Amino acid sequence: MRDNHPVERVLGVIRHDPVRWTDGVPEIDAAVAARAMKFAVEYFLRQMQRGSIKGRVERGIGEDEGRHRLSFQHHDRELTMIVGHDGEIISQELTVTAPRRKRV
Question: Is pLDDT of 20 > 70?
Answer without folding.
Answer: yes
